[in-house]
Amino acid sequence: MHRLIPEKLVTIITNDVLEHQLIKSVRKNGASGYTIVHARGAGSSGEQSGMLNIDTNIKFHVILPQERLTQLLDDLDYLIHKGHHLTVYVSDVSVLDADKFKKPMT
Amino acid sequence: MFGLTNLLIPAVLFFALGFLTRAIKSDLRLPQDMAKMLSIYLLMAIGLHGGYELGKAELVTAFNSVLWAVILGFTLPLIGYGLLLLSRRVDKMNAAAIAAHYGSVSAGTFLTAIAYLDNVGVSYESYPLIMLAVMESPAIIVGLLLASWSRQRMAQDLSIDSSGAAVIHQMPADDKPRWRSLLHEALTNGSVVLLLGSMFIGAISEPAAMQKLFPFIDEIFMGILCLFLFEMGMEAARRIGEFRKVGPVLIIFGLIMPLIGAAIGIAVGHWVLGFGVGGITLVAVLGASASYIAVPPAMRLAVPEANPSFYLTLALGVTFPFNVVFGIPLYHYLAELVAA
Q1: Sign of torsion, CA B100 B102 B105 B107?
Q2: Is B188 on the interface with A (CB under 8 A)?
Q3: CB contact under 8 A, B296 and A84
Q4: Contact status, residue B253 vs residue B87, Cβ threshold 8 Å
Q5: B336 in A contact zone (CB under 8 Å)
Q6: Among candidates B5, B198, B206, B36, which has minimal Cα distance to B120?
């Protein structure tokens, strides 16, 4: 039987100019890692086709335990209040090999 | 001589084709990162060319060109900001972000102008190219300054009026650490680094080694420019759809500001720097153009309160097509008048 540990997956869809700030925030909050995927679509900022530098989106995934969730969401909330457009959603996931998720990124 | 027949060069025609392609809703799509790759190539090629030419440049004129480019880069956004606020239809944050675009330059417009000048057989100095490279950063910095100043003013006003009802996020305290990173962003901007770096390489490399590069930066240059302008034509057409959101006042600004910038550019090119007709035309183009590659992401990050639809539609949907179709021949004509 495998041990599956419950964690939280935070997914952020936003413009890729925010990439460095998201990485900084995620590192600060002790996450063990993150994944970035190129994205395109449309929404509150209009169509993001990915053709120019300004309308390229990213889908930013980070998995962390429940305890660290609130701090990260506070940071994201602050970005939204500054005026940035972010789509943030949190889902419950069960992860295999939970040990690596306990260590923050080096 | 100054008819629109001078626009019948592949570069401009491909821009029109791109525009048309999108307008008729063709399903043609270029790969996502292609515009970025083409942009990188163009900056590198033009940088190498410019650097190579710089070997024959005079240091004093080069220094003056850089100085005046920086002056233009700082002044044009201030003029734009003032005009936008005068209209009373635009708030300060949007005005700051939009103005920054007009202080900066569009390499695409500049290269189209060079293709146009080559076609009509007018020679030009290489100094405007150095000006191109240095005009990006001052505009971004001014945009940030205007936005930050407006933001602090707004925060102060709120704290005076409210009796505790409004919740204000502590912005001013946070502005300081942001400054360093935003300044860093303005000065280490990708386009600037690539352009200046390529110019440096072109200037110090052995001419024999540079010759080996010419098939890459010379022979295929025009073809790549055509592809790039084709893509930009499509992007411009896409932005035209946002005209309704932008409104007539901003559109008029998008048509008037390039003329103001061009007039100032012509004045600087002729009376201050003493360039020939080609050089004056190029400085006019630098003054008239608005960035749509490098400045929009910088503003998106630094001035999130501004609406990207406004500045992108203006820079790419209004000013860029205007400059390519009407502006370049017009500025050439005015440069001829002034130089005579």
Answers
A1: positive
A2: no
A3: no
A4: yes
A5: no
A6: B5
**In sequence order, what are the beta bridge partners of A64?**
A8
Instruction: Fill in the amino acid letter for B35.
Output: A
**Which residue type does A98 have?**
A
If one counts every other C-beta atom within 10 angstroms of the C-beta of residue B216, the result is 14
Tens digit of each residue's pLDDT (9 = 90 or more) over B253-284: 999 999 999 999 999 999 999 999 999 999 99
User: Residue A35 pairs with which residues in a beta bridge?
Assistant: A61
Say if CB A88 and CB A12 are below 8 A apart.
Answer: yes
Other C-beta atoms within 10 Å of A48: how many?
Answer: 23
Q: Which residues pair with B133 in a beta bridge?
A: none
Distance CA A88, CA A12 (A): 5
Q: Using CA atoms, how far apart are residues B46 and B33, in angstroms rounded to an integer? A: 20
Closest CB to A54: pick one of B34, B300, B304.
B300
To the nearest whole Å, the CA of A50 is away from the closest chain B CA by 6
Mean pLDDT of chain A: 90
Q: Please tell me whether the interface predicted TM-score (ipTM) of this complex is above 0.90.
A: no
Residues B219-242: tens digit of each pLDDT:
999 999 999 999 999 998 988 877
Output the DSSP codes for B288-325: H---SSSHHHHHHHH-TTS-HHHHHIIIIIIIHHHIII
Report B:237-296 residues touching A (Cβ under 8 A): 238, 242, 292-294, 296
Cβ burial, residue B151 (10 Å; 0-12/13-18/19+) = buried
Question: CA of B235, closest CA in chain A: separation in Å?
Answer: 8
DSSP string, B264-279: HHHHIIIIIT---HHH
Alpha carbon distance B281, B19 (integer Å)? 25
Q: What does the pLDDT look like over B38-96, one tens digit per residue?
A: 999 999 999 998 888 877 788 899 899 999 999 999 999 999 999 999 998 899 999 99
pLDDT at B160 over 90: no
A49, B238: Cβ pair inside 8 Å?
yes
Please report the pLDDT score of residue A39 as a whole number. Answer: 92
Q: Do A54 and B309 count as a contact with CB atoms less than 8 A apart?
A: no
What mean pLDDT is predicted for residues B103-111? Answer: 93
Selected for mutation to probe chain A from B38, B301, B305, B314 (highest A CB count within 10 Å) is B301
Mutate to test the interface with A, among B136, B235, B295, B300 (most CBs of A within 10 A): B300
By C-alpha distance, the chain B residue nearest A54 is: B297
- For residue A70, give how far its alpha carbon lies from the nearest alpha carbon of chain B (Å): 18
